[in-house]
Amino acid sequence: MSQTASLPDPNAPWYKQLTPYHWFVFFVASAAWCFDCLDQQLFILARDNAVAALSPGIDALEQGKRSGWAMSIFVAGWATGGLIFGSVGDRIGRAKTLAITVLIYSLFTGLSSFATNMTQFMIYRALTGLGVGGVFGLAVALVADALPEFARPKALGLLQALSAVGNVTAGLCAMALSGVDPAVSWKYLFWIGSVPAFLCIFIMLRLKEPEKWIAAKAASREVGGKAMGSYGSLFGEARWRGPAILGMLLCVAAVVGLWGVGFFSNKLVAPAIANALAADNLSPAEIVKGKQWWAAANLIVMNLGAFVGMVSFSKAAHRFGRKPAFATAFIAAFVATVGFFQLFDSRDDIWMSFVLGTCQLSLFAGFAIYLPELFPTRLRSTGVSFCYNVGRFIAASGPLTLGQLQAYLGNKAVAALPTTADAAAKAAAQLEAFRNAACYISGIFLVGLIALAFLPETKGRALPED
Fold first, then answer.
1. Are the C-beta atoms of residues 407 and 268 closer than 8 Å to each other?
2. What is the three-state SS of 235-296?
3. DSSP 73-115
4. What is the chain's Cα-based Rg?
5. pLDDT confidence band for 5 (50 / 70 / 90)
6. What is the DSSP string of 11-57?
7. Residue 196 and residue 106: Cα distance in Å, rounded?
8. In the chain, what percentage of residues exceed pLDDT 90?
9. Do residues 135 and 98 lie in contact, with contact meaning Cβ atoms separated by under 8 Å?
10. Running DSSP on this structure, what letter comes out for residue 2?
């Protein structure tokens, strides 16, 4: 399948500029990232039930701590995998490395369902994270190098928007399993996550390395040629060091905001749903089923908003420029997060999850479009992966930081209650502490505005080269 045969009219709309092979590259990269996101969300939905099943006899507080550790270990593995495979992708090729990362996360997602204790489960989740972390930078670099210049930013924005399909699919799977015993339903979710990703690998066997990468690889072999995928080169040359550090800070703001705060929205939604279900005089079994169903529904609503937000960001970045779109999105993410955690109170407020997803996840379309425009072909996967994934080391502490801050504020709030306060009053004080803790941490979105001020506008520019 030729990469360049029958090139269409460059003045045609972007989607008409793509040859069948271009569409094949876009499909494979989008599928790999979509299944990656499916895996992420299935883990979020299955995590608490998995921890409860693998840690019998412990109280709810200890379960919460172990759940937080599972999330942190997964995100730390994700960050590590991104740094490793981003560099590997520049060295041996995007297509080969993408297939390796998909194989890793599909294999260890499946193995997670066979864990018999928490130690095994944590190991499998860390190894899953390695594969998950490598996909974004590789998929983005592959599309950026293989598609025509005018089509590139729009295709990359769509690639990121389609990640919402994986997220929504995870929610639908969880809804379908809401009536299954929670002690085993988490296993089924991990099986679902592993199978489509594994099948995707066979499609990848037809994928070729982009001609831009082949040319850059050949140039690197010449006398005086510059290294491929070298962190020493990325940080040793001022031209690339600045964008790498500032791009990393840009991503830190969004990644910590989403994984340290946004994806814990269900801890606010769950009590509201539980109260509503209890008020309907349902049986304990029906309440458990209802809570699982509504947790999945909340994820779906949030990711429908994410799709709208990412498509809107792509359009805004194309029309107004990357920096104005980012500035608007960071401010919107901060306002939406504070509003959600202060105001969400009942099932009727589920629309707020749509707004939260729209504002928080719109930023991630910007990363797909903007980050490849900061680095040359020989460092594109390395630079994109570095920026996108280093923030996850910080985000890995997000669940623990949120928990510690919530505990501090909660204990302080409970201590201020009258000695006659009942359990309901103490629970309300703890919930209010969680709301406030989330709002404080959401200030991380404003860090993105600071980094943005020092980054270049790349709208209308060709991809940089040495």
1. no
2. HHCHHHHHHHHHHHHHHHHHHHHHHHCHHHCHHHHHHHHHHHHHHCCCCHHHHHHHHHHHHH
3. HHHHHHHHHHHHHHHHHHHH-HHHHHHHHHHHHHHHHHHHTT-
4. 22
5. very low
6. TS-GGGS--HHHHHHHHHHHHHHHHHHHHHHHHHHHHHHHHHHHSTT
7. 8
8. 47
9. yes
10. -
Residue-wise pLDDT tens digits, 138-158: 999 999 999 988 889 999 999
Q: What is the pLDDT of residue 344?
A: 86
d(CA 111, CA 133): 18
Compute the distance between CA of residue 166 and CA of residue 36 in angstroms, rounded to an integer: 8
Is the Cβ–Cβ distance between 128 and 102 less than 8 Å? Answer: no
386-401: per-residue pLDDT in tens?
Answer: 999 887 787 766 666 6
Q: What is the pLDDT of residues 167-211, one digit of tens each?
A: 899 889 888 888 888 889 999 999 988 887 776 777 777 889 999
Residues with Cβ within 8 Å of 441's Cβ and at least 6 positions away in sequence, in order, are 256, 257, 260, 261, 398, 401, 402, 405
Tokens at residue 192, please? 């679902």
Eight-class DSSP state of 390: H
Q: What is the dihedral of CA 304, 310, 315, 321, to 10 degrees?
A: 160
User: How far apart (Å, rounded) are the C-alpha atoms in residues 251 and 366?
Assistant: 10
Q: What is the DSSP letter of 309?
A: H
Separation CA 246–CA 15 (nearest Å): 32
